[in-house]
Amino acid sequence: MLEQDVAPAVDLLPTLPFRCRAMTAVLHAILVGVPFLFGLWLGSETGWLYGFFGWLASVFAGMIIVSKLKLHYVPLQQHELPHATHTILKWAVYKRFCQPERT
Fold this sequence. Notes:
There is one protein chain. 66% of the residues lie in helices and 0% in strands. It has 3 helices and no strands. It is mainly alpha-helical. The protein has helices at residues 18-45, 48-73, 85-98.
């Protein structure tokens, strides 16, 4: 068997308790909803073009935040694999708030 045929080791995320899943859902809603609401608000205050560009800028800011979370919380062996925003947030919430203490 060639070295290329071996699948990379993937760390599976354990099942999260309800509190952690709720935290992940809230963070996901914030990352998706805030740019949309900001674009609507800016568009109603100034004009549709400024609203569109404000939405676009805030989406880019959210993408930067998610990429920083991926670099910090997703295991190193999985950095090259594609991950959805929700999965990256699950890793971040698990490692920051829900990971059992190691003794």
